[in-house]
Amino acid sequence: MPYRRLPNTDSARIKALKMAVEKAADTDFKELAVSSHLISEAKSALIQFERLCSKYQLMYNTQVQANKLFIVKVKNARMYLSHFVQVLYMCIQRTEIKEEHLSLYGLEESNMIVPDLTSNDQLLEWGRKIIDGENARVSRGTAPIYNPSIAKVNVMYTLFREGYQIQKLHQKATVRIHDEVAAYREKVDQLILEIWEEVEQDKTDLTTDQRLDRNRQYGIVYYYRKGERV
To answer: Would you tell me the crossing angle of helices 150-201 and 36-93 to the nearest 10 degrees?
Structure first.
């Protein structure tokens, strides 16, 4: 005998509910293998679950597209900040800028090494320090660095910072709707299980093949074990 298995994807769950609802709609009330209240619940759950899944997919796609743009902003900010720090170190080596000024940038213990800008949080932190440090040094009457200028660095940093904030909002929204889908998924699974139980308990006088064929029309999916007749 084949065995049944509940749907393990959201699209399969939606398909199972649709088949049960559509089969019920095409069946005379007296011949229904599922109670009317379960069919009513299935209709409501189908609408709600499809809406949630569509909303999640939309939010996820939006986040993915936004991330493509954000990656470019991250790359530019990291490149400009890294380049600026390297030029700063070269200016110090040429004695154009005093080494003591490194403390303004938070680089006094850097050993003339560019700080780690790998993560977004590190980029956010060091970007602010470098920009504030350069502005503080220039305000003391010393010559600014021009290649790249801190104004250009600030533009790239600002684009990154704004993109980072937007991306976090996208991620938060996506996680929220994902949690809603996951919570509702439990209700859908329980509903499908109850429908399938009622269908399999109905018309037990039919032959095995007749029952399997009728049950499949309500969305029940059967699997054969290795070596079993299909």
So the answer is: 160
